[in-house]
Write a structure and sequence with these properties.
Length: 662
């Protein structure tokens, strides 16, 4: 059954599945490293940063990172771990390395022990740039793994500060390794044959020298024999002996000559064998090249099919998501259409009632005219009443004109209200559909009554968060917008829609000894709302994007008065120190509770300018709830000589925004 081995800085987990499907999990309290002397564990106030190597560059990402302890731990060699604790190599064995700074050393050691190729799946934790001493960048490790036959299948950025890389071994790589081994074996065999040929050539050369020496000795003997013939008239017996010796030498020369011929034939056979080996080597090389070409074609076909399959899966998921969004949007549209129809019916009933009243007034007017006609007939002969009759007629005409004008104005106002209501409803429905398409079906519900944020304004806010490189988002008053903005930021990181600046600034500079960088700083004065929202953020997995801070209301001295405002002076001063030396781009959301409680919104901008006046501040506020807030802030910025924009609509009324230091 497959085995999954997970390596942490100071422990190892080995999970295997039995023959009956039962899971077996074994935990080893040891640090995996090829160097047994590397047994010091660097422990930081952020547990994810613990490593066998000091974090030399990680503090640039986490300014609040501090070393707490360096205890000694037991060590275990990577090859010993695999051989001792993995039952046997299986096809789907998975190796997971979550020991930052040590991943490349472990992989290299396993490759040298020929154990890395026994895993079909790899998962490693590696940064794009080295954050630890002796660490390698992720690109170098991935390139090295690609040479080992592992292909990158996915990058997991669920936590953008600790990226994980998923790789799978190419199933054809084992065949390619076998071909390489066979080629190496052939080369070694050829080298041995070359050495044998060189040895035979050396023996042949030595035999040739021996033959030449014997021939020289033979020539000397012949000369001696000729000399002895001249001198052997009295030594015929000695000559006979010498001739016998000479004959014996000739026999040896013949035998050596035969041996020389045999060695020559062996040399020729060795040369022919060498030629055959060279021919076989050429054919093997050609076969290997043909196989490489076929393997490359197969790899290209596999990559193409995998890409088409991945694209088809993405298209299917997108269609399913769009289908679900359209179904939900259709339900919402049906409900809102029914509400609009009811409202239009009520307005039509009012219009019909007004028309009935107008008909009654017309009847009364006709009756008054009839009475007037009767009075004119009765008083035709009374000259003293002519002036009163004229005055009565003018008064009646005036009243009729006034009633007619009022009815026309009421009808026009009613028609405009119906048109505006229908247009506003259509805009909100379109914005709701666009929000669902951008944020997905799991987007948090955002009711305008609860958040004070219409859907058109929420859509504008979501687009701003994805397109603008905000260094920090300060929310004065938490609530539904907190959950909405955190979800939007998480969705942007998952779908890769953040800008280049946002990719560069993986987290906002917001650090202390206790907390680490977050994207949103949300201030809340109510302890109950603070506890409720804090629990909601944890349950929804959004607490990593929001730094929620409880800040009771305290008097804030301003223009001779002391309005109540958040107790955030120390936090704003800390931000000013962290952002010193550059101009940050900060979005400020000014929210107010529905019951009217909470801080004085007029104090928001003065409190921010007290510490962040050198930065770009885009302040969003509700102009309808605070009619005089816009003029008050514009006068404040003019008095302080700060550049600013005029108040503009933020997506839709009643929200507006002002930019300081644009």
């Amino acid at each position: 059954m497959p085995t999954t081995i997970t390596i942490y800085p100071a422990k190892v987990q080995v999970q295997s599945t039995g023959t009956e499907g039962s899971a077996n999990l074994q935990t080893l309290a040891a640090a995996v490293t090829a160097n047994s002397a590397n047994n010091a564990l660097y422990q930081y106030n952020l547990p994810e940063a613990n490593s066998l190597h000091p974090a030399t560059d990680l503090q640039t990402l986490f300014p609040g990172l501090k070393l707490q302890n360096t205890p000694d731990v037991d060590t275990l060699h990577p090859a010993e771990l695999i051989k001792q604790y993995r039952p046997e190599a299986e096809r789907d064995d998975h190796l997971i390395i979550l020991s930052p700074g040590e991943e490349h050393h472990i992989l290299n050691t396993l490759a040298e022990s020929e154990l890395l190729n026994t895993f079909s799946q790899l998962t490693i934790l590696a940064h794009d740039e080295p954050m630890y001493e002796q660490a390698q960048p992720a690109s170098a490790t991935l390139s090295w793994l690609e040479a080992q036959g592992f292909e990158l299948s996915a990058r997991d950025d669920e936590d953008a500060d600790w990226p994980r890389w998923h790789l799978a071994r190419n199933p054809l790589q084992s065949t390619l390794d076998a071909v390489k081994k066979e080629k190496t074996a052939l080369a070694e065999t050829l080298q041995q044959r070359d050495q044998q040929v060189e040895k035979l050539q050396a023996e042949c050369h030595e035999q040739k020298q021996r033959t030449e020496q014997l021939q020289s000795e033979n020539q000397s003997l012949k000369e001696a024999r000729q000399k002895l013939k001249g001198e052997a008239e009295n030594s015929s017996k000695r000559i006979g002996e010498l001739e016998g010796q000479l004959e014996h030498k000739n026999t040896e020369v013949g035998r050596l000559t035969e041996n020389n011929s045999a060695l020559t034939e062996k040399l020729q056979e060795a040369e022919k064998a060498l030629d055959r080996e060279k021919t076989a080597h050429g054919e093997a090389t050609k076969v290997s090249e043909d196989y490489k070409k076929q393997l490359q074609q197969r790899n290209q076909q596999v990559e193409k099919l995998q890409a088409e399959l991945h694209e088809q899966k993405q298209r299917t998921e997108q269609l399913q998501s769009e289908n679900q969004s359209l179904k939900e949007a259709r339900q919402k549209l049906t409900a809102e259409t029914e509400n609009s129809s009811k409202r239009i019916g009520e307005l039509e009933a009012q219009l019909e009632h007004r028309s009935t009243e107008l008909a009654g007034l017309n009847q009364q007017l006709e009756q008054a005219r009839g009475d007037q006609q009767q009075l004119q007939e009765q008083l035709a002969n009374q000259s003293n009443t002519q002036s009163a009759l004229k005055t009565l007629q003018e008064r009646m005409d005036y009243l009729f004109g006034q009633n007619t004008l009022q009815l026309e104005q009421a009808a026009n106002a009613l028609g405009q209200h119906v048109s505006q209501t229908a247009q506003h409803t259509a805009t909100e429905i379109e914005s709701g559909l666009a929000l669902q398409q951008q944020l997905g079906p799991d987007a948090p519900a955002l009711s305008p009554a609860e958040s004070g944020l219409p859907k058109s304004a929420a859509l504008h806010l979501a687009r701003q968060l994805k397109s603008q490189p905000y260094d920090l988002i300060i929310e004065l008053g938490s609530g539904a917008t907190t959950h909405f903005m955190a979800h939007t930021l998480r969705n942007a990181y998952k779908t890769g829609q953040q800008t280049a600046d946002q990719k560069k600034l993986s987290h906002v500079v917001e650090a202390s000894d206790e907390d680490l960088p977050k994207r949103i700083l949300s201030l809340e004065h109510s302890r109950s709302r603070y506890n409720q929202l804090n629990e909601q953020l944890k349950n929804s997995g959004l607490s990593g994007y929001v730094h929620l801070q409880f800040t009771p209301l305290v008097p804030f001295p301003y223009q001779g008065k002391e309005p109540l405002f958040y107790d955030c002076a120390n936090r704003l001063q800390h931000l000013s120190q962290i952002l010193d030396g550059r101009q940050a781009n900060i979005l400020v959301m000014v929210n107010q509770p529905e019951d009217g409680s909470g801080p004085d919104p007029k104090a928001a901008l003065p409190a921010l300018l007290q510490y962040l006046s050198s930065h770009k501040l885009e302040v969003v506020f509700n102009a309808q709830a605070n009619p005089d807030l816009r003029g008050h802030w514009l006068n404040l910025m003019q008095e302080r000589g700060l550049e600013h924009t005029e108040a503009k609509a933020f997506g839709a009324e009643p929200l507006q925004h002002i930019t300081v230091n644009p």
